[in-house]
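quick one, 290 residues, struct below
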Amino acid sequence: MSQVADYVLGRLREWGVQRVYGYPGDGINGMLGAFDRARGEPEFIQTRHEEMAAFMACGHAKFTGEVGCCVATSGPGAIHLLTGLYDAKLDHQPVVAVVGQQKRLCLGSHYQQEIALEQLFADVSEYCQMVTHPGQARHVIDRAFKTALTTRGVATIIIPEDIQEADAQPSPPRAHGSVFSSVGWSRPRMLPDEEELRRAADVLNEGRKVAMLIGQGAAGAEEEVVETAELLGAGVAKALLGRDVLPDDLPWVTGPIGLLGSKASDEMMRNRDTLLMVGSSFPYAEWLPE
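---
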C-alpha cells in the first residue's frame, strides 16, 4: 500500500504540478522517498536553500500562470520559506507550500525543532492547515489549491513525519466528520456595479489630460486596455508587474514608472489632470499626479 506522501504527490500531479522546488531535511523524509518513487512526476528541483525554493515557486507562478509549489522540512527549514512566500503574498501569486512537522506524538512537548507552524504561517497564508489524519489529505490539498488560485495567494499544508509515512487513504471513510472534495477550479466571473462604472466614465470623460497606469491585474485584457487608451487619448505607463501587458513600441506607451521609471512616464504624470489605474497597487504616491 502506498504512503500518504505518495498520495500527496499524486494529488499534486492531478492539480497540474510538474515540478516542486525544495531542499531535503529529515522532517520530510517521507516526501523525499515519495519523490524518488514518483520518478520525476512531479520533478523535485533541489535548491541551495529553502528561501530560494519559495522564490522559485513564486517565479514559476509569475512566468507560467500556474500554481507554484515548494517543499521544506520542519523547524528552521520551514522558517526559511517565509521570505519567498511573502514575495508571493505581496505580488499576488498562487503558491502552495508543503511543510514537514515533527511526529504528532511529541507535539506540545517542545521537542527538537518543534515549531508552531500554523501560527508561523498564519499571516503569509490565505489557507494554512496541518494534516492529522491520512483521510484528511485529499480535501486539505484540494482546498489549498483552490484557495491559492481564487485569492492569488499562498496556501500552506503542514504534514507531520508519521502522517507522511502512514498508509494512504485516497478516499475518506464514509463516516461522520469526513469531507469529500475533487480536483478542479474555474476562474470566477467578476462583474462591476453598473452605477460605479458610469461614475468612473463621467470622471474620465471630464478629464482633459488623461493618463493610465496598468499593473499585473490588466494581464489578459490587452485589447480592452488598448481600446480604452485610444478612446481616452491617454498615454499608458506600466508598473513593474505590468510590464508584459502591453509592448513598449506602441506610440502612447511611456514605459515604466517610479524609482526605475522613464522620463516619458514622469512627464506624463506631472502634466495630467486625470488618472485611470488598472490592476495595480502602485505604492509610490510621489510619482502620481497631484
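The chain has a mean pLDDT of 94.
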